[in-house]
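Q: What structure does this chain adopt?
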Amino acid sequence: MHQDTIAAVATAVGEAGIAIVRVSGGDAYQIGDRLFSPVKGGTLQDTPGYRIRYGHIRDPESGKAVDEVLAAVMRAPRSFTGENVLEIHCHGGPKVTQRILELFLQSGARMAEAGEFTKRAFINGRLDLSQAEAVIDVVRSRTDSSLDVAVQQLEGSLRRRIDSFRERLLDLVVRVEASIDFPEEDIPDVELGEMQTIISSVRSEIQQLIDTADDGKILREGFKTVITGKPNVGKSSLLNRLLDEKRALVTEVPGTTRDVIEEVVNVRGIPMRVLDTAGIRSTTDVVERLGVERARDLWREADIIIHVLDASIPLTEEDWDILDATENHKRVIVVNKIDLPRSWPLEDLPLDSSTKLVEMSLLEGNLEPLLDTIVQLVHGGMRLRTEEALVTRTRHKQALAEAEDDLRQAQQTLDDGLPVDLIAVGLQGALEHLGEITGETVRDTVLERIFAQFCIGK
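A:
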């Protein structure tokens, strides 16, 4: 357990009904007693766990009250961090919150680093590493489905699957190594058929888990959708319809959108990161030209491209330029303004299995056909498997793939009739890689990178 005591504001910056200053460590209550004056007397050090005291935070030098607060006491080891935790619930103004934090820092606490509360929960055994990563996923969830997946992982769904793999492999390793190290003890050899069965079974289950990675990543991060087209075809109107608000400026003046506008839209439970880009055209305006170049860069990064065309005017060189440049991407061609007389036939468009077509009027048309088409294009209309463990991070997928490869090599060694000690090497490698997911064998540099993603108060 850490010896020093850390403090940070655990709530978002800004005005709110309440804010929370969180303190964790061995001296949390001693430091709190220097600042907290309970209305009914007594001390925080004498307060039982899971109690809330009412009182005031006072400046120890002047004795003046800083704010009227509630002090929540959560004693080790039954707290989020596994340490003594004190939370001060104060009024939610930025000035008062910052002042209370400053008093705790002046009285002996240290400013918490990003993610340090959750990191201590991991180090003290309150969470494994996959659960710690799920904390930030809960905070960042944008849809009910992504929240369901994050909560499942926070409750240990992925850890339980990994533990199941590790337990079977560890039992096999112990038996194999015991027969190698203590041949005089007449320990029964592990039957080759049993080894084949166990290794094959674990490999199959690991692969099933790897197969969920695309769905899991989409639910956690969303899929990047770039809206493109030449000026004034309806790109910003589409963004506003998707958001159901006037987020983008819509005018008849070409080149109104010069920078990228990014928002997140909930599409059938899947978070869609929508980027409205500058209209593609030749221009002498320096700022607009930079926006056009940025739009072209985003095409390469997009999961899906929505290319908006105007049905009421003939296709131009800019339209064909975009169609040619995006032909190798998943895309939806939205033919807009079908309420006006059509000026070109749909047969002109290059359609294939990765290109879907939707005709509509963005002024008043129904968006449902477009949303259905987008979902169908995303991973073939993915089924939201929120009831089971999903792989949501590239780190997890890579570790599983390396573990599966270790087991493949072990199985090949077994098939080739080589000594069992060589088989044990592959099994140990698989255990090592599986342990990286839950944190048993993870390196310090990886831990630092993971917890650096957190906000300071979490």
